[in-house]
Amino acid sequence: TDAAAEVQGELVYADGGDFHIVALSAATGDIVWRTSVLGSGSADMHVSERYVYAPHGGFLSVLNRRTGRYVARLQQPHFVYGKGAIFAPPTTAGGRVYAGVNEGAWS
Questions:
Q1: What number of other Cβ atoms are within 10 A of residue 103's Cβ?
Q2: Taking the mean position of all CA atoms in its chain, how far away is CA 85?
Q3: Interval 30-57: pLDDT, tens
Q4: Which in 32, 49, 53, 96 has the greatest CB count within 10 A?
Q5: Region at 26 (left for phi over 0; alpha for psi -120 to 50; beta for the rest)
Q6: 36-66 burial, b if ≥16 CB within 10 A, otherwise e?
Q7: How far apart are CA 88 and CA 43, in angstroms?
């Protein structure tokens, strides 16, 4: 994977390249949690105060930042495999999540 790692507080979040997102202790490098995500090949994730947003293909996995437990697994509207996948890192503003997709944006 070519997804960048993110740091939020005491944890570093990374796409393990094996269909998993991992949270590592910034102080020790120990794995705090490891969660399987749907799909392959991820774009850069976004980490907010409460959640990790991890795009994979036409899906967006939303994980609890501290525990790695799923909050939601969303499918991009009108997604067709091989077309229209999320290609830009998601971001948050005003209580909403935004992601760049082929042919527009998704929020």
A1: 7
A2: 14
A3: 999 999 887 655 568 889 999 999 887 7
A4: 53
A5: alpha
A6: ebebeebbbbbbeeebbbbbbbbbbbbbebb
A7: 6
